Amino acid sequence: MAAPEEQDLTQEQTEKLLQFQDLTGIESMDQCRHTLEQHNWNIEAAVQDRLNEQEGVPSVFNPPPSRPLQVNTADHRIYSYVVSRPQPRALNDAKRELRFLLVYLHGDDHQDSDEFCRNTLCAPEVISLINTRMLFWACSTNKPEGYRVSQALRENTYPFLAMIMLKDRRMTVVGRLEGLIQPDDLINQLTFIIDANQTYLVSERLEREERNQTQVLRQQQDEAYLASLRADQEKERKKREERERKRRKEEEVKQQKLAEERRRQNLQEEKERKLERLPPEPSPDDPESVKIIFKLPNDSRVERRFHFSQSLTVIHDFLFSLKESPEKFQIEANFPRRVLPCIPSEEWPNPPTLQEAGLSHTEVLFVQDLTDE
User: Fold this and answer.
1) Residue 161, class by beta-carbon neighbours within 10 Å (0-12 exposed, 13-18 middle, 19+ buried)?
2) Each residue's pLDDT tens digit, 106-153
3) Which element (helix H / strand E) includes 155?
4) Is the pTM higher than 0.70?
5) Of the residues 153, 154, 346, 361, which has the fewest C-beta atoms closer than 10 A?
């Protein structure tokens, strides 16, 4: 496929140009563009015109000199007896817009056809009436579309006109005109048919407006219902989220309590193990014993004897096993003021003995609470 020339074309026009080429199979992009420009970039009208040309129907932009008639309706849709939209489309337009549809079947070989087209159908007053009061569809009976309509309407002679409208909710022929007729007579008869049947269109228009109003009201009610439903769903969603938030909070508190209970249980078990592993307390008359008075953070005092040869770790384990002791603590001596290395560290991988730490036979040590640090 040749690339379109995008100079002076909008994106929408370029897309229509490519679509028109695909639908019609025309290789020349210039020809495609020219055709679309002739139809004011109406791709539907351009494609229909192209299909008509392929069926042997002249284009609306190149009508044969012997058939110059072309009637334009007020809304610029083109209905002619040479080139026309499909008849079902015209019926749908008339039904949707609640307008009269004037159908003209052209007999190519009938002796009165040319005179009727040139003198009657092309008369300015006839064209004015058609443009202002009705839609117009026409076709030659030699064309497939015209032949199908002819079989349905069963005309007796030409020229033939049929007035069709929506009556009792179906498209109905309400007037037939056959044979050559002068412009004034045609106008009078068409006006009579319109006046005689106008009430049906008025009634249908009122019913349609009522149906539309009912539909609009129902749509508004549906929208209000949906809005209320969405509001209820949003409230329910927020309630679910709040319930879920409370459940997660309660579960979190529960897990925290369980974790605290496990921690306390493990701590108590560890205290009991430390207590069981403590060496026996030396007797007061043992010359190698050390009497230590511990001052706890809660101002209580605890006294116990240890052996000079024992590690400072024993002092820590003793204090750890006490119920009154904090979970984390350090032991300080006063003279000189220092922190005793009771647990292994980088500086003291193996804590010293009481003797190596310089403790005397009687000592007062302070327990410093480190639990919150």
Assistant:
1) buried
2) 998 899 999 999 999 999 999 999 989 999 999 988 888 888 888 888
3) none
4) no
5) 346
